[in-house]
Write a structure and sequence with these properties.
Two copies of one chain form a homodimer. Chain A is α+β, with helices and mostly antiparallel strands and 365 residues long. Chain A has two domains: 185 residues, Fructose-1,6-Bisphosphatase, subunit A, domain 1 (Fructose-1,6-Bisphosphatase, Chain A, domain 1, 2-Layer Sandwich); 156 residues, D-Maltodextrin-Binding Protein, domain 2, CATH 3.40.190. In chain A, the strands form three sheets. Chain A has a seven-stranded mixed beta sheet, sandwiched between helices. A five-stranded mixed beta sheet of chain A has the order 11-10-12-14-13, with helices on both faces. In chain A, a hairpin with a 3-residue loop joins strand 8 and strand 9. The longest helix of chain A has 34 residues. Chain A is globular and about 55 Å long. The two termini of chain A are 39 Å apart. At the A-B interface, helix 3, helix 8, helix 9 and strand 11 of A face helix 3, helix 8, helix 9 and strand 11 of B. Chains A, B: InterPro entries: IMPase, Inositol_monoP_metal-BS, Inositol_monophosphatase-like, Inositol_monophosphatase_CS. Chains A, B: Keywords: Hydrolase, Magnesium, Metal-binding, Quinate metabolism. Chains A, B: Its EC number is 3.1.3.25.
């Protein structure tokens, strides 16, 4: 645990402010030594924040076991609608991370889910400056239910690219970490993908068949005939239905998984536990750390929305903040096909089966 | 680990054979002492079998890391279609459990997923006799992907009712166990539901809103307009859509989860981590242990298919082998409503939103 920093050092830096700063103060590339030092710091921060989540969970269990605590419904506060629960824990953990970062790296910018969501703008605020993008508790609903799939997510983003990512799921005892050029790791000892590129294999010839497809129902549940809920469900059914069904779109994936945590979905895609993750509507703090993990593990992250020429278009990296993501796991080469070619083939197979989602974002091209 | 038993003691006993046996040999109630002894045996069996799963996973990782093992695609064998993978591990673990049971309780019947599936009948074979109903590896696809949601499931069924249930998910370090009259437990020390009945709370007044809804896409992916896939998806969408949508059926559940393991879904419902589990198509070895867990924790397990008079019909316990299940978590009383009344209210709310699934079964009324 860090000692308490000076509170006045801790605040969200607006995009306008940052763009006015001289480059030397906030931008500029970090040296390898600086990056390595920040990586160690971020891992320790992830450990500490994860321990805070676990302590909070155990404290709640104890309180409720002896009947001194409030009932679950009263400790939760509703936000947006019944789906998005905010707990005190969210706020405490974000404050802890924010304070630690501000003490150690006072010149870095900071964007946290809780701080951001309580503000009035939905603009994309990440600039070229070194910026910490964190979610103190992803999978809040799971956390309030003692379901294992929750985590803290911590990323450092430089020039708009996540260069450090730490995801700690304390009840699973899984700490994922990655740093640009240093690979992606589980519990600091097992390199991702977990089975090695040979072990996770090439992208199957008949993919998305044989693939685990990970997706989320999200919070956007409006029952509009052509709304996001129905576009998502159409896409899920295309991926799931038997091969050849639905006008040739049936993908007969091996399995469909929904964990209730975009961050864990991405970590498991980096690991090779999931083959495909497709999602719209999530925010940069949900995916910043996971993006670094997927890319360092050798996976591919692009946009959820198929471009017009989806079978021939260049496959570009997803833009952080675009709210539209498609991730494909690391792979080894197939005979006659590189790993990247296999991944791109799978991206096009997914694009062929999914519909456009409507999640726009001010400030992202 | 048990020593190897005599192979000739180990075989599946047919329903016809059992019905011819004198009651004293196979039926009869077990005494409390006998039950307690069998419970200890079953927990140890669960531990050992879980350790075998974990060893197998680590061995595979090691083999593939050094490049001496076969590639993933060649160690897997297809059954039914691409979704249902059988690994050697399934067979080894079932053989281990079968042998241990036959040595210790030679008069007990035994039905295992692997042995059963390789037979020609799909009849329901559980009689009144003490019968072990086990799944050596539930969540096989997850296991082959190193995704944490896999487990061994071991149940003792007497007079058609599961009286002992053990579920061990070794990568999660979660061992769930229950015995008739002794409650349900996590890792033998934490009583289920995990937060206590007060902690999991009463069934929310506006349920299924605020509930985590757990469901699976399964393997039945035929694209028939009125087939099970579309009936399932219709039901999922009803549960998920905003309140009031879809002709009043919108349930706006808090979250939708799909883990790829019916057994884990049931364990998490017993724990209170999930509020609702609705599923058709699974088999008795998927649910026997989980049934005991849910019931001992104070949850409710009934049929997935709404009866004609779904808002007034008696709510009966699910029949083992019926392949149609709806589970509701343990709860405490609401002011003016008992826990059971709250659970029954939720069952009717789910029935109002889900469609009939078509999974018949020879041998089950």
């Amino acid at each position: 645990m860090q000692t308490q920093p000076h509170a006045e050092e801790v605040r969200v830096v607006s995009a306008a402010e940052l763009s006015e700063r001289p480059q030397g103060e906030t931008g500029g590339e970090l040296s390898d030594t600086e990056l390595a030092e920040i990586y160690s710091f971020a891992i320790q921060l992830g450990r500490d924040a994860g321990a805070m989540l676990l302590n909070s969970l155990h404290r709640r269990r104890r309180d409720e076991a002896v009947g001194t605590g409030p009932e679950e419904e009263t400790v939760l506060e509703e936000k947006l609608n019944a789906v998005d629960i905010v707990t005190e824990t969210d706020r405490e953990v974000e404050e802890f991370i924010h304070s630690a970062v501000a003490t150690r790296y006072p010149s870095h910018a900071f964007i946290g889910e809780e701080t951001y969501s309580s503000g009035s703008t939905k603009e994309y605020l990440v600039t070229d400056a070194p910026t910490w993008v964190i979610d103190p508790l992803d999978g809040t609903v799971n956390f309030t239910h003692s379901f294992v799939m929750f985590c803290v997510s911590i990323a450092l983003v430089v020039r708009g690219k996540p260069v450090i990512g730490v995801i700690h799921a304390p009840l699973l005892n899984q700490l994922f970490s990655a740093c640009k050029g240093k690979g992606a790791w589980l519990n600091e000892t097992m390199r991702l993908p977990l089975l090695g590129k040979v072990g996770v294999g090439p992208i199957p010839r008949n993919a998305p068949s044989k693939c685990i497809f990970s997706c989320e129902w999200g919070k956007d549940r409006k029952d509009e005939p052509d709304g996001n809920l129905h576009r998502k469900v159409d896409s899920f059914v295309n991926m799931a239905a038997e091969v050849g069904a639905r006008g040739g779109k049936g993908g007969m994936v091996h399995g469909v998984r929904s964990l209730g945590s975009a961050t864990m979905d991405l970590a498991y895609t980096a690991m090779g536990a999931f083959d495909i993750w497709w999602e719209g509507g999530c925010w940069e703090w949900d995916v910043a750390a996971g993006t670094c993990l997927v890319q360092e593990a050798g996976g591919l992250l692009t946009t959820a929305n198929p471009p017009e020429d989806s079978q021939t278009a260049d496959i570009e990296d997803a833009k952080l903040g675009s709210r539209l993501y498609l991730a494909v796991r690391p792979a080894c080469d197939n005979p006659g096909e590189t790993a990247r070619e296999g991944q791109e083939r799978l991206v096009r197979e997914v694009w062929r089966r999914v519909r456009h989602l409507d999640y726009s974002r001010p400030g992202v091209a």
